[in-house]
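Lab notebook page, bench 4
Experiment: in silico fold of construct C2
Operator: M.H.
Input chain length: 58 residues
Purpose: comparison with the prior construct
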Amino acid sequence: MTWRKSSYSGNSGGSCVELRAGLDAVRDSKNVDGPVLEVRPAALRAFLKGLRTSSPGV
């Protein structure tokens, strides 16, 4: 499976996370060998919905 970084993430070394489809996992894009947070699909959807609600345009 391939990790996916948001198109809003720049290459300037800022705070970025990546998502992995099929595994429902999140990781720090600057530490690809670091820990991976696995979440339930419904929890991830709710989290992303909350981000979009509090930050329009995300």
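Observations: The first strand starts at residue 3 and ends at 5. The chain has a mean pLDDT of 80.
Next step: discuss at group meeting.
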